Amino acid sequence: MKPADRVERVPPSGIRRFFELAEEKEDIISLGVGEPDFSAPWAAREAAITSLEQGKTSYTANRGRRELREAIADDARERYGLDYDPDEEVLVTAGASEGLDLACRALVDPGDTVAVAQPTYVSYVPAVTFAGGEVCAVPTRPKDEFKLTYERLERAGAADADALMYCYPNNPTGATMTGDELAEVAEFAREHDLFVLSDEIYAELTYEHEHTSIATLPGMRERTVVFNGFSKAYAMTGMRLGYALGPPEAVTAMNRIHQYTMLSAPTTAQYAAIEALESCDGAVAEMRREYDRRRNFVLSRFDELGVDCFPAGGAFYAFPEVPGGDAEAFAEGLLEEEGVAAVPGGVFGEGGAGHLRVSYATGLGELKEALARIESFLD
Amino acid sequence: MSSHSDVLGILRTDARTSVEDIARQTGLEEDDVEEVVAELEASGVVRGYRAVVDWKRVEDEPVRAAVELNVTLDRETSYNEVAERVAKFPKVESLHLVSGDYDLLMEVEGESMSEVSSFISEKVAPVPEITQTVTHYVMDTYKDEGIEFGDGEDDDRLSVSP
User: Fold this and answer.
1) Which of A300, A317, A328, A360 to mutate to test the interface with B (most CBs of B within 10 A)?
2) Residue A18: what are its φ and ψ, rounded to 5°?
């Protein structure tokens, strides 16, 4: 039996190739890592350990433990003034990635089109393809600070799409969008009847302005599923815990798949997540401060090296332009000659070519050394 | 004030961070960083810069002890006066007034246990206001000045990830 056509249509991840190249080398400094270098806050880990000691190792409700869904709903209310019913409008998933996959499979019919803002997280296009949908790429450009605009959406043909999927703060560019800027996107979505899949996993790592969720804008709550999770803000990537917030019919449809596939998100992680939401704001703030320092450091060093680097306002990525424009060759040369791994922006889709994704989820000491090696490579 | 706390935060993490790097991390100009550091030093907020040493890795590991001191005051003597007198001994590494079962917590460093014991019995205990000393020798150190002394965890994240 051969793999299904829709699976064969999806090429292997461009990141995978760099991962393999990097694995072959010793003593590399990796700026290619899309996950925090911190451990989860101790209180969250302690809650996970305690739950194990108490033998809490069974499945939970399909939608997630009610206590966690309530804590998530409370958090959304406090942070954004958004009211979600924990019983009908909150779904706890195995990472935000599962949520995005569920949303595509639950809401996209074969032949439907999803507009995907690019460059962006590598899983979006495959998720749409696996669901049988078509992708309409909406490239964002450095001159627009990698933001979505009404005009960009229009020009890319997103008016004919059924849904729009994006991620702000953005992986890989670090671009953020203010409430006013999102209002344009919301207007477009309302005018053209687009459902919005808004990945806000990096919301807590917004440095220069308050994060705005598009669901807070007029007429958007009922046409938006918001994705978030504990991987980035709480450094809990391996716990695999995320959540989706949205109108009841969307979340119920997603849960219908979730209950037959994942059944429920990892129980131990759910106990950790409750504690994280209740008591770990301080740890999140401390990590954000540290990332901000590193961000300033990296931007300043690229400036000194004469390399144009997009001044990211969120996440933990810098997105410099590669001298000469061939980011693939640059990244391979940098890895080969200097032992520094960074991911060429083209693997994140249209608009990313000519850039490198440089993660600063790495200690300052290593960042300093890596930037010194980049300087030497440029010479 | 936030520039002061930002700079202080960086110096607390690594006092050897260069002015250039502090400027890069905080977004301040280098001249401003130098000014802030000078102010922190002049105002006595920053009292000094020292290395945090893992003594187990040093050949001539000193003997260290935490010593509880109980003090009885009279009308002419304050805690400050007793503390100032004790703090002048070079072997005293730190001295804190604390709440609880004893009054002062003193950290002492010497070349041998007998040297530390002699110092406490011959120099500290005879101070008239000090009524009791309890000495705890340091057997091992797991964390000092906020720095953990394990061998460090390897970064086992995937070297490239989404």
Assistant:
1) A300
2) -70, -35
Condensed to tens digits (0 to 9), the pLDDT of residues A208-244 reads: 999 999 999 999 999 999 999 999 999 999 999 999 9
Pairing of strands A134-139, A113-118: parallel
pLDDT digits (tens, 9 = 90+) for A168-210: 999 999 999 999 999 999 999 999 999 999 999 999 999 999 9
> Tokens standing for B9?
């935060």
Q: Please give the Cα distance from A345 to A353 (Å, whole number).
A: 5
Residue pointed to by tokens 């410099």: A320
| Residues β-bridged to residue B65 | B108, B137
Q: Are B105 and B98 in contact, with CB atoms under 8 Å apart?
A: yes
Residues 6+ apart with CB under 8 A from A214: A182, A185, A186, A196, A198, A220, A224, A226
Encoded tokens for A236: 């809990």
User: B67 forms bridges with which residues in the sheet?
Assistant: B106, B135
CB A173 within 8 A of CB A154: no
Distance CA A317, CA A188 (A): 28
Q: What is the 3-state secondary structure (H, E, C) of B83-147?
A: HHHHHCCCCEEEEEECCCCCCEEEEEEECCHHHHHHHHHHHHCCCCCEEEEEEEECCCCCEECCE
Paired sense of beta strands A195-199 and A163-167, if any: parallel
Q: What is each CA distance from B145 to A24, A55, B52, B63, in whole angstroms?
A: 38, 37, 7, 18
Long-range contacts of B44-50 (CB under 8 A, 24+ apart): B45/B4, B45/B8, B46/B8, B46/B11, B49/B11, B49/B15, B49/B16, B50/B15
CB distance B100 to B91 below 8 Å: no
**Which chain A residues are closer than 8 Å to B27 by Cβ?**
296, 300
A59 class by beta-carbon count within 10 Å (0-12 exposed, 13-18 middle, 19+ buried): exposed
Q: Report residue A234: phi and psi, to 5°.
A: -105, 10
Q: What distance in Å separates the CA atoms of residue B87 and residue B71, rounded to the nearest whole number?
A: 14
Three-point CA angle A321, A325, A327, nearest 5°: 75
B159 vs A23, A293, A294: nearest CB: A23
Q: Residues with Cβ < 8 Å from B136, sequence gap 6 or more?
A: B65, B66, B67, B68
From residue A232, alpha-carbon distances to A84, A241, A287, A361, A374 in Å are 22, 10, 10, 10, 26
The answer to whether A206 contacts chain B (CB < 8 Å) is no
pLDDT-derived band at B1 (thresholds 50, 70, 90) equals low
Contact B159 A13 (CB under 8 A): no
Q: Are A277 and A72 in contact (CB under 8 A)?
A: yes
For B34, the enclosing helix (H) or strand (E) is helix B30-42
